[in-house]
Amino acid sequence: MISPQRCAFIIGKFFRFVNYFALSGYCLQEIFCYNATGHLPLNNQLMSLLVIGSAAFDTIETPTAKRENILGGSAAFASYAASFFCPVNIVCVVGEDWKQEYTALFTQHGINTAGVEIVPGGKTFRWSGKYRENMNDRDTLDTELNVLGNFQPKLPEEYRRAQFVFLANGAPSTGLAAIDQLEGASLIVADTMDLWLNIARQDLDALLSKISGLILNDSEAKQLTGERNVITAGKKILTMGPKFAVIKKGEHGSVFISEYETYVIPAFPIENVVDPTGAGDSFAGGFMGYIASQGNLDGETIKKALVYGTLAGGLCVEGFSLDRFQEISRSEIDKRLEQFRKMAAF
Ligand code: AMP
Question: Is the CB of 309 under 6 A from ligand 1?
Fold first, then answer.
């Protein structure tokens, strides 16, 4: 006779399995083994996250300050945020003007830099933006693609069997080229921006058909789908390929939408916004880093990943570049998580 507790345990396991399977589209058995405590990565080794995107020298102007040529880029922010949770492998391209101290900054924080390609004689991507008084709206002042313009990502051999992959903001063709080199990833999630909706829609549609999840902000979700309502837009994204969408709504938090679940998470209130650059990338890095660290996609993990993403985005904006991240540790993020829990629990 099976006890009611045992029966509930088996049913719970079954639904966790179905949920993961439905979202990833790949066979769970390839990646995980079971024990009584739930899903465990094979050999109990911490899963790593592969991040592909941009590394940049940013020039940022806010209503009160200006910084020139500071470390930025979608992969830089996403990787650093994710590395609070799991080992990270970064793939990006830089020029000869790249500073070795930035590579050291990555490696000291658990980011493998074997995939940082330095183009001899090339110049690193430069981006410059100016924030308006409300610190939310920004204007791109200048974009110098430089080596990013011809970026053909080359995944080092050891990265190709990555299970968890985040395609940080960049040309959709870069994401497609990276996917071609992967050997059976379980979860591929991409970020995007309005620029690609405007100039690379065909590539973006091709990319959408190959990924499990899409992270984007509310205006981009509306533009992508032609819908006015965020939830309707999220559901329409599910018809374009992804199994889930995470839609960020700035100071109104974020929403996760899949065929099976909808989760909403408020924003963590930040009093001292210094520079919003990289908030979206850091959100995605925290979200994906936590999922990779847990090795599953059940509802509790997704909700906590949304919270960690929110906290990472909030911490990022408290300083320029990666400055604030360099001052903190995982335990401080977890302290914020407790504060957040008290604020949001009802
Ligand atoms: P976020 O504030 O999260 O939108 O990210 C800002 C970062 O994205 C900056 O550090 C920029 O260097 C980087 N970025 C801006 N435009 C692009 C682009 N077209 N492709 C890749 N990265 C970009």
Answer: no
